[in-house]
């Protein structure tokens, strides 16, 4: 039963990886199942699947770009709020400072624009690369 589960989970790997390493991984599972324990090997396989899809597929680049963009937007929003707060403190007439709700709205809107821009450009680049690779295979 654990071998069937291992084979099923092995199929979750990207096809190129599975073709190159699937047989060896199954052989290692058969050899080490009794000494290492099936649970440890299944856990290792799940980690491998996650690593292959995240790191090899480039999804991590998009996630990292989005995280960096969110940090930039939040830093910019905090700077905007601090600047206007400083101006209001210096102004004797008590000029209005931006409300926290305005800052949140600015941040959410900016993050939305960044997510749409990064996602759109990622999809465009991936389609461009697929077409380029397909053209190479034809020639």
Describe this structure in words.
The protein folds into 2 domains: 55 residues; 80 residues. Helix 1 runs antiparallel to helix 2. By secondary structure, the chain is mainly α. It is elongated.
SSE layout and pairings?
Elements: H1 2-10, H2 15-36, H3 38-56, H4 59-90, H5 100-138
Helix pairs in contact: 1-2, 1-3, 2-3, 4-5
**Taking Cα atoms only, what radius of gyration do you get, to the nearest Å?**
25 Å
Largest sheet: none
Which structural class matches the secondary elements? Answer: mainly alpha
Helix-strand topology string:
HHHHH
Summarize the structure.
This protein has 139 residues and is mainly α. It contains five helices and no strands.
What keywords describe this structure?
87% helix; single chain; 2 domains; mainly alpha; 0% strand; 139 residues
